[in-house]
Amino acid sequence: MRIRNRVWKAALFGAVAAVLAAQAQRGGGGDAQKIAEGRKTFRFDTFGDEAFWGDTLKLHQAIAGSKLGGVGAGVSPKTALAVGLKVDAEALPRTLVQQIQSGGVNLDDPATTLALLKMNAVVGVTGVFDGDQLKSVGIQCALCHSTVDQSFTAPGIPAGNVGRRLDGWANRDLNVGAIIALAPDLSVVANLLGTDQATVRQVLNSWGPGKFDAELFLDGKAFRPDGKSAATLIPPAFGLAGVNLHTWTGWGSIPYWNAFVANLEMHGKGRFFDPRLNDAVQFPIAAKNHFGNVNPDLSPDDDRITPKLAALHEYQLSLAAPKAGRQAENLAVQRGDQLFSGRARCNNCHTEPLWTEPGWNMHKGAEVCIDEFQASRAPDKAYRTAPLGGLFTHQKGGFYHDGRFATLLDVVNHYDDCMRLGLSAGEKSDLIAYLLTL
Ligand code: HEC
Ligand code: HEC
Fold first, then answer.
1. How far is Cα 103 from Cα 81, in angstroms, rounded to an integer?
2. Which site among 19, 41, 113, 196 is 20 to 30 Å from 182 CA-CA?
3. Segment 351-374, tens digit of pLDDT
């Protein structure tokens, strides 16, 4: 009896394990079809924002250049890669790959850029074509939150420019400001900010690579009190499952921020509600322009954002932080691990394995010894404990919301001063070795 029972139990556990394994293979145990749908949205959906980037700002004209029906010199592939745009190698036909690798493709000709757009090969950018004529252009989440791996090189194309997509990785090469500044008509942005186009271009060009200013269009603050740009780094969009509040300053949940960005930053067509933006003192521009209640009367049939939010959320939750490689046997890493949750007290806030606090993961600037400027631009007026998974993928551009610490050693030195940790040089280097494995 006992034996039979055991056999039966083993068979049952075996069956359950097989089902779980199959689910895990489909992608983190979630709904595989929804995750695939969300991935498509993340990579390819403009939410109708070409009405803004193309039709209004006329960015497509600057890309095409005057010879191809646009304005100015046009954007060659060389220029596109120089401002950090990435090319999806898997979207390129084999013959073209061979041509690029033999140096047979003109990387100085905007016509090549248009051809790449037509193949849907420029990560995060979609061209709208009428025949060969570029009629408009839209952007996607992947523009800022994907990059490509090092798998492809060719004459004139260093590794890391063309390759396989890495979704969720922050594109710290991307100079968003320089790209927007190319747009021939920035009058809408200038009017919104109550300034002229030359000033708008100056602000955009002050951001630099890997940065964007999501709050500029709410409060009009382009520069910090010390005169430096108010833009913040693009954070990774992986490793966020289980994390309560998102963005550097904890604006809300993942689906909150997705709706915010798709409506207010990308200018897709949808519905958005947040009465916190009606505060005319903190958010004068948002309050004046009713950003707290976008398209209240939009017909559900015309809403190109809201129906995408559920699957997009599932996809983001499925993106685990990448691992730099197994280094658990490394002694420095082991010592760093001990310090992290021991004498250095990092784990008090960056709680393993979320690497942020379960619960209300917010702190005043003073608690981590920094100024309150960026915190004061968000509803909670605080900083969110940044999740640390996959840190090795976004060392370019520095650390903390504005990249004020160029290296992890600068970060650790900062905590050493701030929290009076008294770490030795060896302990600091152990802690860094550990941080790079998270
Ligand atoms: C133009 C670049 C850009 C685009 C396009 C963009 N983002 Fe972001 N994203 C940012 C920046 C910059 C932040 C940080 C904002 C802040 O803290 O003020 C951010 C923050 C986030 C976060 C918070 C991450 C965290 O650490 O909690 C998520 C999630 C996110 N974006 C998802 C998306 C999705 C989904 C889309 C498409 C609907 C999108 N983003 C489009 C630049 C961009
Ligand atoms: C009091 C809570 C708290 C403690 C303790 C703490 N941190 Fe942080 N940490 C934060 C907050 C908040 C941020 C985000 C700061 C910002 O947005 O500018 C952050 C950011 C970071 C970042 C930058 C992440 C990025 O994406 O740029 C690193 C790295 C980091 N912490 C490492 C550590 C280490 C190592 C320790 C221990 C020596 C530690 N932290 C202790 C709250 C804390």
1. 16
2. 41
3. 999 999 999 999 999 999 999 999
- Whole-angstrom CA distances from 291 to 196, 280, 305, 366 are 21, 11, 16, 30
| Ligand sitting nearest the alpha carbon of 386 | 2
Spell out the residues 6+ positions from residue 222 whose beta carbon is closer than 8 angstroms to its own.
203, 206, 213, 216, 229, 230
What DSSP state is assigned to residue 46? -
Taking CA atoms only, the protein residue closest to ligand 1 atom 15 is 247
CA of 64 to the centre of ligand 2 (A): 43
Q: Which two tokens stand for residue 326?
A: 């197994």
* pTM recorded for the entire structure: 0.92
Q: What is the pLDDT of residues 160-184, one digit of tens each?
A: 999 999 999 999 999 999 999 999 9
Residue with tokens 């504005």: 402
Q: Say which residue, 401 or 153, is predicted with more confidence.
A: 401
Ligand 2 within 6 A of 350 CB? yes
Angle at 148 between CA 143 and CA 149, to 5 degrees: 165
Tell how far the Cα of 302 is from the centroid of ligand 2, in angstroms.
42
Report DSSP state, residue 268. Answer: -
Tens of pLDDT along 299-346? 999 999 999 999 999 999 999 999 987 676 799 999 999 999 999 999
Please tell me the predicted confidence (pLDDT) of residue 329. 74
Report CA Rg, the chain. 24
Is the CB of residue 62 below 6 angstroms from any atom belonging to ligand 2? Answer: no
Q: How far is the CA of 408 from the centre of ligand 2 (A)?
A: 11
CA distance 50 to 38: 20
In the chain, what percentage of residues exceed pLDDT 90? 90
Specify the length of the chain in residues.
Answer: 438
Tally of CA atoms within 13 A in the half-sphere of 78 that contains its CB: 8
- Statement: residue 5 has pLDDT above 50: no
Quote the DSSP letter at residue 246. B
Atom of ligand 1 nearest to the CA of 266: 5
